[in-house]
Amino acid sequence: MKPDNQRIVITGIGLTSPMGNTLSEFREGLLNNGSGITHTEIRHMGVVAAGLCKFDETKYQPKKMRKRGTRAGAISIYATNEALADSGIQFDSVDKNRVGVYLGITEHGNVETENEIHDLYNTHNMDVSFWSHHHNPRTVANNPAGEVTLNLGITGPHYTIGAACAAGNLGIIQGVQQLLLDEVDLALAGGISESTETFGIFAAFKAQGALGHHEDPTKATRPMDLERNGIVVSEGGAVYVLERLSDAKKRNAKIYAEIIGYHSNSDASDFVLPNTERQIECMQMAIKKAGIETGEIDIVNMHATGTTQGDIQECQAVEKLFGAYKNVHVNATKGFIGHAMGAAGALELAGNIPSFTDGYIHPCKKIENLDPQCAISGLVNGEKVSHDVKIILNNSFGMLGINSTLIVKKY
Asked: Is residue 3 part of a domain?
């Protein structure tokens, strides 16, 4: 057993998702067949399905700062403040030099750049003197984490982790590593995304033939269903308060889970198509680092985006590694909320963590016509399952072949 100062635990969770702005709201939707997908109109695209968040952007910041900042920053500030409130930590008494902010993102700056070019062309007759002097701080890659430090007076390190759709997991992993290196005493870590604010991502997925659509928006994203036709773009964020177990014990903190294993690797094989063998290796290394047996895992949360080849490749990886173990249950989250990009891994982990206390495994959104190539062992389809959950494995994979796996254990 590792000493307490080398064990990292989760003591606070804050989020905004297309299916609620608290962990309890989000969890209720996952257990009871909810949906956060609606139709919305996007510039140059018309009506598309999307997962939109509805939260109070000025709950934790004045309107003036929100006007100067970004949607990504607003999501980050909201989720971080919610996480700190949930943790019960007396933040005023914390040494702000020893607090780090580590947020995973898919991309950043597209929203502001698109909006300013639109105004420049359509309103200001290409007069660049109207270009916002806030453009640079809004679009630098560290903006979301940086806005958090400005909001909370944090003087320790901050940066974002650009890791495509693996970024939510990697933000948490970065926080764990910085605590283990004794660079910080408190890590605010997770993932965020503002992707629904930019038409470019919708246009790109449509050009690839990978933009999910349906006359009923709640059916526009259907991972592993034979009738699936692509990804639904969503926004959101989830931020975790991470501490060493020794520090959490000192303040008698509520502990959601212990982070026991993680790994990241690269496919090095294609810009967008996943690589089954590299996904298997990523999961195997995380399990090895966790010091557990494969069959001890209770939940495998799949990345499962709703693209034909992506779902099949990942199902092959999961079946090969876990198919022989009856204890392992497999679920997925994107059928409920869409693909929250840089926030996906962090949100999906949050959705499963309550399993430790409520005794249920949330299902995949009902798969009405399961693709035979996705008919894997242990798939929880449509109805929640009662189970004594002790270990969760969370997968997030991204473009350019970046893979991440995170393993958490009931404390």
From this structure: no
Question: What residues contact residue 246 under an 8 Å CB cut-off, 6+ apart?
Answer: 3, 4, 5, 7
Per DSSP, 364 falls in state B
Counting the structural domains of the chain, the total is: 2
- Structural domain including 393 reads 261-409
Residue by residue, DSSP assigns 11-26 as EEEEEEBTTBSSHHHH
- Domain identity same for 158 and 266: no
Do 236 and 279 lie in one domain? The reply is: no
- Within a domain: residue 182? yes
pLDDT digits 0-9 by tens, 345-368: 999 999 999 999 999 999 999 999
Query: Residue 93 and residue 89: Cα distance in Å, rounded?
Result: 9
The answer on 220 and 106 residing in a single domain is yes
Phi-psi label, residue 236: left if phi above 0, alpha if psi -120 to 50, beta otherwise: left
**pLDDT tens digit sequence for 152-179:** 999 999 999 999 999 999 999 999 999 9
Of 356, 360, 348, the closest CA to residue 395 belongs to 348
Q: How far is residue 15's CA from residue 192's CA, in Å, rounded to a whole number?
A: 9
What span, in angstroms and rounded, lies between the C-alpha atoms of 26 and 84? 18
Same domain flag for 231 and 324: no
Asked if residue 4 belongs to a domain, the reply is no
Strands 257-266 and 8-16: antiparallel
Record the pTM.
0.97
Antiparallel, parallel or unpaired: β 329-332 and 186-193: unpaired
Q: Report how far residue 403's alpha carbon sits from residue 411's, in angstroms, rounded to the nearest whole number.
A: 26
Size (the chain), residues: 411
Q: At what angle do helices 167-180 and 344-352 cross, to 10 degrees?
A: 80
Q: Are residues 209 and 282 in the same domain?
A: no
**What is the rounded CA–CA span in Å between residue 113 and residue 115?**
5
Domain with residue 290: its CATH number is 3.40.47.10
Contact (Cβ atoms closer than 8 angstroms) between residue 304 and residue 222: no
Say yes or no: 398 and 297 in one domain: yes
pLDDT tens, position by position, 193-238: 999 999 999 999 999 999 999 999 999 999 999 999 999 999 999 9
Q: Which of 250, 280, 299 is the last residue of a domain?
A: 250
* CB of 172 closer than 8 Å to CB of 349: yes
